[in-house]
Amino acid sequence: MKIAFFSTKSYDKEFFETYQDQQEIHFKYFSASLSIDTVALARGYDGVCVFVNDKLEEETLQQLAAVGVKLIVLRCAGFNNVNIEAAEKLNMKVYRVPAYSPQAVAEHALALILTLNRKTHKAYNRVRDGNFSLERLQGFNLQHKTIGVIGTGKIGASFCKIMQGFTDSILAYDKYENETVKAMGVKYVDLEYLLENSDIISLHCPLTPETKYLIDATSLQNLKNGCMLINTSRGALIHTGDAIEALKEGKLGYLGIDVYEQEEHLFFRDLSENIIQDDQIARLISFPNVLITSHQGFLTKEALQEIAKVTFQNILDFQAGKETENRVVSN
Ligand code: NAD
């Protein structure tokens, strides 16, 4: 089988090369992301291997089907970038990697919290500049603070476990309560209560029509003054314009994001010599209490190894016509 591999980065190749040419699976790496403009690259391939910011809308899928592509393997868990119904109509099968390393993302959420709080990024730069002043580096103890976790699936549960090392006050909100999380002593509450009572809120639910702009002007007004909001899930869970207003007012005390609503135009690229056209990210970057990483929650050795291993297995399962739980189907 020939697989066109889109949005290739050096770290993808490093881990996928182990599987190159094994069991007659051949990868061709393209640095371009997959969209309507690049779909022609997939001509002559049986499948495409894509990541979070490759856009597989109906028209792109139709063109993929027209050039003979039958398989879409996602190197990620989220699949909001693929029109699943359209893929099904075109007889294309979609697979994902549902749990390559929940710990990787949960630990990154903690990294955002600790950096924003203890300002280690600022201290690092200061000291390199010969500035040993402590002015404006004050943080707060996480001990006894209330942490609100929205979405307690694999990553949310892992995050709860980590945060129990800091505090015994963890609130959770999910459509479905996770018994393991409950048994850990985490208290499930309604969304409003969580928003009103948490010192730090971390988002771990998927992006769906229901969760889009879960954090908007109304929910932001419900927050405790100075609350820290962390998003390692998907950008559009937060209404960026409303978050900027809440930061300007001081209602939102800190914002740590690994994902951004318009990230497909920015993330995973070196744009340091370009003029950034996105005024919202430019405004966010200007706040001293905002920390942005460009979707690197997954970027650990363990997670990359698992992504390559499971993706390769997904291709073999597709070939063998096996129905597995990694197959994404519409509801
Ligand atoms: P999961 O499916 O195990 O858990 C998601 C949880 O969200 C479930 O418990 C579900 O019931 C809950 N949920 C769904 N709709 C909800 C709603 N309307 N309100 C409240 N809760 C709701 O998924 P996971 O593996 O924990 O991943 C969570 C998200 O993390 C993914 O959807 C993906 O967007 C994101 N992610 C980010 C990175 C990264 O690198 N930053 C990497 C992997 C995953």
What this model shows, in words?
The protein is an alpha/beta fold and 331 residues long. It has helices at 10-16, 58-66, 84-89, 102-118, 120-128, 154-163, 179-183, 191-197, 217-222, 240-249, 279-286, 301-319, and strands spanning 2-5, 26-29, 47-50, 71-74, 93-95, 147-150, 170-173, 187-188, 200-203, 227-231, 252-257, 290-292, 327-328. It has 2 domains: 2-100 and 300-328, Rossmann fold (3-Layer(aba) Sandwich); 102-292, Rossmann fold (3-Layer(aba) Sandwich), CATH 3.40.50. Strands 8-7-6-9-10-11-12 form a 7-stranded parallel β-sheet, with helices on both faces. A 6-stranded mixed β-sheet has the order 2-1-3-4-5-13. Strand 6 (147-150), helix 6 and strand 7 (170-173) form a beta-alpha-beta unit. Helix 1 (10-16) packs across helix 12 (301-319). The longest helix has 19 residues, at 301-319. The radius of gyration is 21 Å and the shape is globular. The two termini are 29 Å apart. Nicotinamide-adenine-dinucleotide binds next to helix 4 and helix 6.
Quick overview of this protein structure:
With 331 residues, the protein is of the alpha/beta class. The protein contains twelve helices and 13 strands.
What labels would you give this structure?
seven-stranded parallel β-sheet; six-stranded mixed β-sheet; 12 helices; 2 domains; single chain; 34% helix; 331 residues; Rossmann fold; alpha/beta; binds nicotinamide-adenine-dinucleotide
